[in-house]
């Protein structure tokens, strides 16, 4: 048993990011297929929430760099730790790549991202229809890959919490 909890800041960021990311994937898929009149407002909300994920991820990575996570309990095998670590690295890569590809795709489309209609963010990609198409594809592909990794991650977390009951899930609650 391990009573260790991750720092409150890490737990708050973890759950805020989790709620945002799952909502963003749902909203992203729904708005892409929708002709309804909420689509424009949905896309605006999607961009804003997506940029929040980027900011939260940068903060989270700098917190982790300053204070590494506490060790997992000894009964978690080397192999399991490696797999969990690899999934986390891939999740982090996608948490950066997805918002950046969204932001860049808007630049490539010649439609710079505006925050609250006031602040216009710099275009991080040159205007190009071909580039827009590639980034649009990449954005969707990355998001679905993230969803699959998250399912793996949740399965692992629930296995620890409900089957092993070894305190690993509680570290994040
Ligand atoms: C969008 C959904 C999610 C994302 C992107 C995500 C991402 C992450 C990442 C990157 C970590 C590594 C620790 C850190 O850097 O903060 C982590 C840890 C953890 N996550 Fe998630 N997570 C998600 C959802 C969930 C859910 C739904 C659960 C519970 C069922 C969960 C349980 C855990 C646990 C227990 C840890 C801590 C493992 C440890 O103590 O080392 N996560 N998560
Ligand atoms: C973690 C953050 C994000 C996630 C998980 C996410 C997820 C998604 C998903 C699943 C789709 C639908 C893909 C498809 O059907 O092929 C989508 C579409 C889209 N996303 Fe994101 N996204 C994020 C961040 C962003 C950001 C930061 C922007 C722009 C600043 C953005 C702009 C867009 C646009 C413009 C579309 C296409 C809308 C359309 O063509 O109807 N996304 N996103």
Q: Could you spell the SSE succession in H and E letters?
A: HHHEEH
Broad structural category: mainly alpha
The largest sheet has its strands arranged as: 1-2
- Overall pLDDT metric: 94
Structure overview:
With 173 residues, the chain is mostly helical. It has one domain (8-172). It has helices spanning 8-32, 39-66, 78-108, 129-164; strands spanning 114-115, 119-120. Strands 1-2 form a two-stranded antiparallel ribbon. α1 (8-32) runs antiparallel to α2 (39-66) and α3 (78-108) runs antiparallel to α4 (129-164). The longest helix is centred in the last third of the chain and has 36 residues, at 129-164. The chain is elongated and about 55 Å long. 16% of the residues are buried. Bound molecules: protoporphyrin IX containing FE (HEM) (2 copies).
In short:
The chain has 173 residues and is mostly helical. 69% of the residues lie in helices and 2% in strands.
Q: How would the blueprint of this fold be written?
A:
Elements: H1 8-32, H2 39-66, H3 78-108, E1 114-115, E2 119-120, H4 129-164
Antiparallel strand pairs: 1-2
Helix pairs in contact: 1-2, 2-3, 3-4
One protoporphyrin IX containing FE (HEM) binds near residues 32, 47, 99 and 139.
Provide tags for this entry:
mainly alpha, single chain, binds protoporphyrin IX containing FE
